[in-house]
Amino acid sequence: MLSKLKEFDLYRRIPKDLTETTTHGSILSLCAAVFMLVLFVAELLAFLSLQVSTNIVIDPNVDSLLKINFNITILDMPCEFATIDIRDVLGTRQDNVTKNIQKWQVDATGIKNAYGDINHEQADLMHDIHHDIADLHANGVHAIPVDESNFNAWIDHHPYTFVDFYAPWCIWCQRLDPVWEAFAEKMEIEQIQISVIKVDCTENPNLCSEQKVMAFPLLRLFKNGQAQSPDYRSDRTVEGLHLYVHQQLGMDEMLSRMLPHEKEEHFALLAQGKDDHPGCLLVGHLLVNRVPGQFHIEARSKHHDINPPAANLSHVVNHLSFGPALSKNTQRKLEVIPKSFFSLDSTQSFNMKGYINDKLHQAFHHYIKVVSTQVELSPRYSGRDAILAYQMVGASQIMMYAEDEVPEARFSYDISPMAVVITRKGKHWYEFVTSICALIGGTFTV
Hints:
seven-stranded mixed β-sheet
């Protein structure tokens, strides 16, 4: 039985009597050994290293919504007017989105100095509607019209001056006009030492620009020529205005009785709430349909008409990204991908960029192409468990607006139907063993 089995021996031994060693054979054997060692090391390094490849596929993501994360500073707009709207090609229209958005007031350098709370809906204001301007003017004009030529002298001459900055075309100013006149008449009847005046900003644009009148009407109290912050933003009724004036006069009377150190603390507290540089930091995220669309930031108010020349949309994009936020741990894992294949910078290409414009009736528009990217780092992170990121390519340019239009900072996005799949994988163990066998066999054959 064994003798028959030996007939199938494919590796038959040659008797030593039939072999002979030679110098050339030794040299050739040594070269073959070195050659095999070099190839073995190369194969081993290839087995231990991981290769990165890319592929383009139709985007397999079936989610109906896409998350947009943003942190944007509007350098010259009070938070009460800063609003965010959403539009898309499906006809979706969301105005003044407030969910998942927070606001902070910022100073001239863009540093947060006051918390604006969650972006709640603007509060409703009450308006008196029973005053007739013709009846009020029967015994003369009580709210004195003032212009650029005498405004500064007027507020310097009077200890208290309450000013209505308005525009004749403003519907809210038209509703306030009889209320303001009735309030001025009441101040005269009660002989309160406060001057009630009004300024037409269409006739005095330089004065209103100097006073930073962004919306009409703007009601501002001056004391000895100095503006008192914050501006009046409560009910537009004679009773509401009357209460505000008495509160301010009562506060000044109380201040006159304070000790010096108490006055210092009071003025320090007032300085913190001063809004002479109305910048606003907007932080949050939006959930939008996975279709081309845009979101924009503009000035709007429920009870004001925005002054278009004063609407400056200069802004700094501190952060802008699409999709779920990548954790620090995930970001560290992605660092193993060569920059030529994937970079975190490509997912936030607008970060820390400023878009400053000092000209009237202009604003920056941004155009963004968004590409879904799936990174498969290992069998564990592959398929549905792959790391999902959104790379973007953007361009920005200044757009012109008509004189009666309010500019907006617009971010238009287009989501690519294709997705990039980045795969990082190495050789299987059986591929490594096959390569080693081929290396040894091939060397001996040669």
